[in-house]
Automatic annotation (TrEMBL):
Entry-linked InterPro entries: Polyketide_cyclase/dehydratase, START-like_dom_sf
Name of the molecule in the record: Polyketide cyclase / dehydrase and lipid transport
Species per Swiss-Prot/TrEMBL record: Neolewinella agarilytica
Amino acid sequence: MLQLDTVIELPVSSHEVWAELTDFSKYPSWNPLITSVSGNWQVGNTVTITQNGVDSLSEVLVVKPGKELRWGGRICSGWLFDGEHYFLLTQNGDGTTTVVHGEKFTGVLVPLMEAKLMKAAKSGLMAMNEAFSKRFS
């Protein structure tokens, strides 16, 4: 398994973060990583996500408003490659929100692609975090 977590602190409530995070219609105007999202965001549904110019079908895994959003995609039922993208929101007592934004990869291809996956994942997550943070400044 390969997992990468990034953390950002935002000066607004988790509900404000959630509202902006799930306003997928605005992604093309600010998001350098995920430029398009379409579909019905209910657990178990399939959505289309455009990341780095490539469309992929992903399953909605978790939708907990104000707390967690998670989706994933698989190749060959996950034994070859399985990836999850997630956001975990924690409302802090001072009115700020901590956002853990990460990706997790499993499957037999992961060890062969580890360096490339880590580099691409880290740069993509950091770019999205920076752009997302600017939405609240």
